[in-house]
């Protein structure tokens, strides 16, 4: 948390449109106005009883639990901790009797290939791969890194880990080799599961080649299992590299799900924070599974005959909770798409919706904005009449994008569920219930039953005045919350619990509530950016920049961007005199490529400005607030006379400074 965080919390605009729930939405829904009210009351009057009842109703337990919540080691909260279960059995085995031949995954590759896996087939594939992992010596508690394209095998690998108690750590395929290496090393993974390549944006992303660059620097890795997906040529290291099709060839499809404690870690997922190093967010089994199930039901109103499609990659938490686990645990049919939304043209998403009769669709504001830019003709060319719920996640959705989603995609028929949550929260926390909650463009509306969210001031007192900003906090532990940061419990405590002395979980977001109690998330209050909905730490990018031999100092800030939400703007001081002319352009290209190689293409600064030095306080702290104003092109009104070099503001303000 920076000392300047408060200025982030200022409410600037008010949106007053209100969209009541469509009248006939409720028919066939498991949720009703009455039930919703009852859930809210039950959670308020008997918090633990509420969660215990849901956990008993929604999870198939191997050993039933008797303890609901253990707070004795707070903030290491434990839920349902004397129970045992298997998450994979809850996602697959339990559906076989009733839904064995129901499609679980309808996969469409970017080139257009389609593959359908029924629940029975998926279970068999998961069993085979689980046995293959075991044959490679993988035991309960071991870490397996998954670096895959968006293909069914990514989900199969995750489910196979869950089946035998291995802890998966999925690394987004867009991350560079160095990011991959850091995550493998931190997790001490023994196996990497990857593919020769994946199709993305009309090209092949050579995932295996990216792994090859770093596996030698990861002594914990015993084997690299390679799925043949794109057929691109790859290098091969005998004794270490194994083809997926070879390791499953002799394996049995039967693999009994292991009984695991509720608190057994299910996965690690690395995410950016306000310091340089990504954190391994650790989720557990029972509480997390419960959260995915109830939110699939409450927020997506998932029904037996739905075709559900979440466009998120399995490399992000959305692809964990709402691709790999939640939909399967609910026995839903889901679409999985490998590629980019604009291949072969910007109608691809809508074509997929028509082709597979998608009824529940979940995507990110950045995708909505990008597709909106291409006009209404693309969506109008397809039959979108089956859509009934539209979801949004990753960043605040601006009202213009919301209205387009509502009018052009949802044809004013589909409730929009704007879901606020985080990698750390595991599942949706603040979101409307479709058919019940009236929506307002840009607001994630109200906390779900059992979620005690609030906006508090710097003293931790609730902000009661409408539209006044504060810190978005959660006041009670909830089952799907993160349990710790892998290998760093102190950082867990410090990051999420220290600000209000352990009383509340601190999300790092600023928010306000309007007169109806609706939440409006106003963005991060720490040094975290949201670029196309992806979370990036400014410090992470800064430390990569200063590692470049030419760079003496760097400061990274965000500025609003129409398409990506926020754009990365880097201020750089070079060791040599400030580059000008052609040298300047060359340096910019070099530094962008440098960041891309070290973190991934998503972290490349949209803009780099060179300066002779950076504005600092007397104590030597970089004045990011000033830099943010400069990046936005605002005039700096505050007194800069105490700066080391007040003139620097003028230089920074002109990106073309020569
Ligand atoms: C951060 C979490 C949640 C899964 C995908 C991103 C921002 C997320 C919303 C929303 C406003 C949102 C917040 C949050 N955010 N959803 N509906 N409205 N802001 O997960 O990478 O862990 O990022 O994304 O700033 O803290 P994540």
Sum this structure up briefly.
With 658 residues, this protein is α/β, with parallel strands linked by helices.
Question: What does this 3D model show about the protein?
Answer:
- With 658 residues, the protein is an alpha/beta fold.
- It contains 20 helices and 31 strands.
- The strands form eight sheets. The chain has an eight-stranded mixed beta sheet with strand order 13-12-9-7-8-15-16-24, sandwiched between helices.
- A hairpin with a 5-residue loop joins strand 5 and strand 6 (114-118).
- Bound molecules: 5'-O-[(S)-butoxy(hydroxy)phosphoryl]adenosine (WT7).
- Residues 271, 316-318, 393-396, 418-423, 444, 507-509, 521, 524, 530, 535 line the site of 5'-O-[(S)-butoxy(hydroxy)phosphoryl]adenosine (WT7).
Radius of gyration: 24 Å
**Low-confidence regions:** 1-12
Number of helices: 20
Largest sheet: 8 strands, mixed
The shape is globular
Q: Structural class of the helices, strands and pairings?
A: alpha/beta
Q: Which bin fits the share of residues in helices? A: 25-40%
What's the overall average pLDDT, rounded? 95
Bound molecules: 5'-O-[(S)-butoxy(hydroxy)phosphoryl]adenosine
Distance between the termini: 35 Å
- Tell me the strand percentage band: 15-25%
Number of strands: 31
**Strands side by side in the biggest sheet:** 13-12-9-7-8-15-16-24
Keywords, separated by commas or semicolons:
alpha/beta; 7-stranded mixed sheet; 30% helix; binds 5'-O-[(S)-butoxy(hydroxy)phosphoryl]adenosine
């Amino acid at each position: 948390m920076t000392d300047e965080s408060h200025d982030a919390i200022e409410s600037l605009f008010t949106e007053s449109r209100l969209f009541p729930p469509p009248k006939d939405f409720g028919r066939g829904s498991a949720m009703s106005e009455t039930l919703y009210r009852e859930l809210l009351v039950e959670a308020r009057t008997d918090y633990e009883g509420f969660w215990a009842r849901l956990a008993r109703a929604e999870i198939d337990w191997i050993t039933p639990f008797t303890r609901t919540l253990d707070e004795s080691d707070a903030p290491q909260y434990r839920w349902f901790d004397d129970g045992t279960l298997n998450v994979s059995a809850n996602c697959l085995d339990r559906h076989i009797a009733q839904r064995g031949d129901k499609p679980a995954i309808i996969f469409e590759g970017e080139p257009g290939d389609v593959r359908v896996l029924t629940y029975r087939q998926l279970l068999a594939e998961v069993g085979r791969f689980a046995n293959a992992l075991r044959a490679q010596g993988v035991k309960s508690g071991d870490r397996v890194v998954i670096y895959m394209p968006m293909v069914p095998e990514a989900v199969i690998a995750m489910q196979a880990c869950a089946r035998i108690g291995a802890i998966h750590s999925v690394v987004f395929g867009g991350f560079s080799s160095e990011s991959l290496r850091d995550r493998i090393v931190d997790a001490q993974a023994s196996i990497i599961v990857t593919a020769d390549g994946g199709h993305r944006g009309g090209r092949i992303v050579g995932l295996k080649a990216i792994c090859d660059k770093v596996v030698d620097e990861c002594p914990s890795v015993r084997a690299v299992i390679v799925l043949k997906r794109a057929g691109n040529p790859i290098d091969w290291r005998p004794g270490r590299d194994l083809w997926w099709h070879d390791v499953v060839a002799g394996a049995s499809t039967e693999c009994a799900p292991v009984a695991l404690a509720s608190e057994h870690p299910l996965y690690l997922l690395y995410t950016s924070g306000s310091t340089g190093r990504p954190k391994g967010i650790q989720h557990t089994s029972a509480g997390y599974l419960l959260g995915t199930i109830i939110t699939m039901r409450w927020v997506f109103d998932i029904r037996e005959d739905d075709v559900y499609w979440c466009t998120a990659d399995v490399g992000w938490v959305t692809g964990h909770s709402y691709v790999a686990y939640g939909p399967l645990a609910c026995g839903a049919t889901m679409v999985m798409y490998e590629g980019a939304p604009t291949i072969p043209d910007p109608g691809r998403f809508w074509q997929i919706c028509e082709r597979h009769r998608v009824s529940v669709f979940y995507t990110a504001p950045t995708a909505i904005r990008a597709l909106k830019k291409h006009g209404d003709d693309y969506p109008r060319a397809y039959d979108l009449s089956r859509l009934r719920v539209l979801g949004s996640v990753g960043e605040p959705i601006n009202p213009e994008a919301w209205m387009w989603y509502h009018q052009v995609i949802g044809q004013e028929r589909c409730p929009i569920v704007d879901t606020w949550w985080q990698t750390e929260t595991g599942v949706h926390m603040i979101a409307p219930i479709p058919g019940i909650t009236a929506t307002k463009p840009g607001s994630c509306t109200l906390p779900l039953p059992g979620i005690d969210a609030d906006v508090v001031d710097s003293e931790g007192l609730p902000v009661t005045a409408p539209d006044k900003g504060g810190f978005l906090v959660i006041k009670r532990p909830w089952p799907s919350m993160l349990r710790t940061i892998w290998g760093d419990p102190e950082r867990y405590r410090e990051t999420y619990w220290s600000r209000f002395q352990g009383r509340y979980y601190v999300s790092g977001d600023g928010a306000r509530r309007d007169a109806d109690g609706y939440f409006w998330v106003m963005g991060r209050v720490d040094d975290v950016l949201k670029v196309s909905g992806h979370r990036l730490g400014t410090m992470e990018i800064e430390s990569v920049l200063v590692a470049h031999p030419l760079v003496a100092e760097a400061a990274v800030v965000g500025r609003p961007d129409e398409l990506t939400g926020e754009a990365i703007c880097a201020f750089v001081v070079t060791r040599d005199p400030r580059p000008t002319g052609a040298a300047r352009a060359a340096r910019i290209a070099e530094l962008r490529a440098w960041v891309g190689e070290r973190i991934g293409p998503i972290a490349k600064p949209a803009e780099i400005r060179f300066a002779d030095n950076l504005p600092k306080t007397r104590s030597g702290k970089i004045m990011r607030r000033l830099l943010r104003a400069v990046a936005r092109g605002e005039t700096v009104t505050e007194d800069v006379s105490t700066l080391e070099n007040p003139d620097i503001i003028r230089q920074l303000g002109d990106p073309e400074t020569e």
